[in-house]
């Protein structure tokens, strides 16, 4: 038989159940929740890694476009210097000792490899790049090829 008591609110009496949940009921609910989470968390982690890679590629593309636009608008050479050991790249006006325009760090799980691109990368005042080439980017099991095209100085990323 359930234990009940009366609760009085503004002159009206209500029946209140003081029984609560048992330990078995709470363990069953906890088991169900952990089972569901075991199926949801691994795909979520993979999605987060993919999103981080997409964000990096978009940011890198925007930074290279900024360097090109800066070179054309100021009529100056802009140099991009990669520091793969410290996981960052710099955008500088002029040469390697010029005014620093931008420094961008990237997470250490990213791995870079210069395939046909040779540093330093430079945008001339007319917006063209000094040499075409390919940069390989890997994050986990995902690999992309970033291609800098000769002429217009544009780049595109291609999944391998």
UniProtKB/TrEMBL annotation:
Coiled coil segments of this chain: none
InterPro entries on file: ComGD (IPR016785), N_methyl_site (IPR012902), Pilin-like (IPR045584)
GO biological process: establishment of competence for transformation
Location in the cell: Cell surface
Organism superkingdom: Bacteria
Gene Ontology cellular-component annotations: cell surface
Protein name listed in UniProt: Competence protein ComGD
Species assigned in the record: Anoxybacillus pushchinoensis
UniProt-listed Gene3D superfamilies: Glycoprotein, Type 4 Pilin
Transmembrane segments: 21-41
Keyword list, A-Z: Competence, Membrane, Transmembrane, Transmembrane helix
């Amino acid at each position: 038989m359930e234990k009940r008591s009366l609760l009085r609110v503004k002159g009206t009496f209500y029946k209140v159940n003081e029984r609560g949940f048992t330990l078995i009921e709470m363990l069953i609910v906890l088991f169900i929740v952990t089972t569901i989470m075991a199926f949801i968390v691994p795909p979520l982690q993979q999605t987060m890694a993919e999103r981080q890679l997409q964000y990096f590629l978009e940011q890198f593309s925007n930074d290279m476009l900024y360097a090109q636009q800066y070179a054309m608008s100021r009529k100056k050479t802009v140099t991009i210097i990669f520091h793969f050991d410290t996981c960052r790249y710099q955008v500088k006006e002029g040469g390697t000792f010029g005014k620093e325009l931008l420094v961008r760090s990237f997470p250490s799980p990213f791995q870079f490899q210069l395939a046909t691109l040779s540093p330093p990368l430079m945008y001339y005042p007319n917006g063209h790049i000094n040499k075409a080439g390919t940069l390989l980017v890997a994050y986990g099991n995902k690999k992309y090829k970033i291609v800098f095209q000769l002429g217009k100085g544009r780049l595109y990323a291609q999944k391998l």
